[in-house]
Amino acid sequence: MNFFRLAGDMTHLLSIVVLLLKIRTMKSCAGISLKTQELYVIVFLTRYLDLFTKYYSFYNTLMKLVFLGTSIGIVWYMRYHKVVKQTYNKDQDTFKHYFLILPCFILALLIHRSFNLIEVLWTFSLYLEAVAILPQLVLLQRSRNVDNLTGNYVFLLGAYRALYLVNWIYRFFLENHQYRWIPWISGLVQTALYADFFYYYIKSWKNHEKLQLPA
Q1: Fewer CB in 10 Å around end: N or C, the chain?
Q2: What is the 3-state secondary structure (H, E, C) of 88-154?
Q3: What is the 3 state secondary structure string of 153-207?
Q4: d(C-alpha 72, C-alpha 47), whole Å
Q5: Which residues contact 171 (CB under 8 A, 6 or more apart)?
Q6: Transmembrane stretches, by residue range (predicted)?
């Protein structure tokens, strides 16, 4: 494991901690897209099928279980917790997220590393994760004013993907047989989707202002 992957994992974990902190302590999911969280559940369920076929390390297994468990838990809170679900911005979270699933699956069937179930679903998870943030970004643009915890959560998610993109580049140059251009392209697309948010996040941080996104 290299520094960039570890930093990416820890940043991803921190983003989940921030979101759970908001949900558990504030009993609120205001500003959080349930559509994006449901897409993440699909991403992790399809990516981590190798939990049942291969053992890499205790760290690898633990992190996969943590990401799976927390993603399912977040969706449960937003859908079924009697207090939290009342704070969900259902009227603003209207992005048709199911339209993203089929194109990503078809693309995975056409462009993959090898044609078997686990590899195709792994590729599908990368394609879907690249665009899973779209409902969240649309929701933030509609709500305009973004609270600190939500802004930090989205920023950390974007930073995690950027670090993982650097991780793949590092592995390409310094490790053997690590030429995987599918994660590169997926990471570039996902990081590009965050670019506008990053700009306004950093701008608000520098000016000590509340984060606001243009409509």
Answers
A1: C
A2: CCCCCCCCCCHHHHHHHHHHHHHCCCCCCHHHHHHHHHHHHHHHCCHHHHHHHHHHCECCHHHHHHH
A3: HHHHHHHHHHHHHHHHHHHHHHCCCCCCHHHHHHHHHHHHHHHHHHHHHHHHHHC
A4: 14
A5: 2, 178, 180
A6: 55-77, 98-115, 121-140, 152-170, 182-202
The DSSP symbol for 208 reads T
Q: How is residue 212 annotated by DSSP?
A: B
Amino acid at 41: V
Q: Is 177 left (phi over 0), alpha (psi -120 to 50) or beta?
A: left
CB contact set of 173 (below 8 Å; sequence gap of 6+) = none
pTM value > 0.85: yes
Q: Is the backbone of residue 81 left (phi > 0), alpha (psi -120 to 50) or beta? A: beta
Q: Which amino acid is at 127?
A: Y
Q: Token pair 């950390």 is at which residue?
A: 156
Please give the structure tokens belonging to residue 83: 């207090």
Structural tokens at position 158: 């974007």
